[in-house]
Amino acid sequence: EVQLVESGGGLVQPGGSLRLSCAASGFTFRSYWMHWVRQAPGKGLVWVSCFKSDGSSTNYADSVKGRFTISRDNAKNTLYLQMNSLRAEDTAVYYCARGIGVAAAGFDFWGQGTLVTVSS
Amino acid sequence: QSVVTQPPSASGTPGQRVTISCSGSSSNIGSYTVNWYQQLPGTAPKLLIYSYNQRPSGVPDRFSGSKSGTSASLAISGLQSEDEADYYCAAWDGSLNGVVFGGGTKLTVL
């Protein structure tokens, strides 16, 4: 059974840092693109970042570029999102998701999400 | 403002067929396949349609997708009360080098 379990969310002050983790199981983690998607309270889905399966490249939304860093540890089947210089507008539930299909942009499995709140 | 546009709301009665539209541009929907998601309140999104109108295992064939040029549509036939949810379209964007989501459509079953 495919499972994605996020952790690491919480309350952080503006300008602070947080690292999210996504533990994967039930599939060959290294073979898939992995993504982070966020959803602010009461708002829609917003793609944040992705990491190619072959480790050759990463991509970021303009809103987080230069502040967030995605990484993966294929030996531990874990995806990470290091978030620095956090702003109030980064407050959201953060989901990790597995990518499939054309451009690996179809997200067939999602974690339960972890809430990040940026507030003083 | 989203790069990909959806109507904020849609509605239908049980048994009816409803469609939700999704409008983009040549760099996203015009060049890549469209994925559709259903999100029930308080839960993670669920993939309904991906690639060339493929449905993941367990998704009923009442759900179908289509695309023409830079626009796409999700059709739900035989509408049921449990279909009441938020629906999102998404696609890879070759100019942004990332995935773009529509703003979401709240479907109400009357």
What does this structure look like?
The complex is a heterodimer of chains A (120) and B (110). Chain A has 120 residues and is mainly β. Chain A has no helices and eleven strands. In chain A, the strands form two sheets. In chain A, strands 2, 4, 5, 6, 9, 10 and 11 form a seven-stranded mixed β-sheet that branches. A four-stranded antiparallel β-sheet of chain A has the order 1-3-8-7, with no helix packed on it. Chain A is globular. The model of chain A has no long low-confidence stretch (mean pLDDT 96). With 110 residues, chain B is mostly beta strands. Chain B has strands at residues 9-12, 18-23, 35-39, 46-49, 63-68, 71-76, 85-93, 98-101, 105-109. The N and C termini of chain B lie far apart (29 Å). The model of chain B has no long low-confidence stretch (mean pLDDT 95).
In short:
With 120 residues, chain A is mostly beta strands.
Pick out its properties:
heterodimer, A: 120 residues, mainly beta, 7-stranded mixed sheet, B: mainly beta, 3-stranded antiparallel sheet, globular
Secondary structure layout plus pairing:
The complex is a heterodimer of chains A (120) and B (110).
Chain A lengths: L2 E5 L2 E3 L5 E8 L8 E6 L5 E7 L6 E3 L7 E6 L4 E6 L8 E9 L5 E5 L3 E5 L2
Chain B lengths: L8 E4 L5 E6 L11 E5 L6 E4 L13 E6 L2 E6 L8 E9 L4 E4 L3 E5 L1
Parallel strand pairs in B: 1-9
Antiparallel strand pairs in B: 2-6, 3-4, 3-7, 5-6, 7-8, 7-9
Query: Beta-strand level of the residues of chain A, as a percent range?
Result: over 45%
How many strand elements of chain A? Answer: 11
Structural class of chain A: mainly beta
Structural class of chain B: mainly beta
Shape of chain A: globular
Uncertain segments of chain A: none
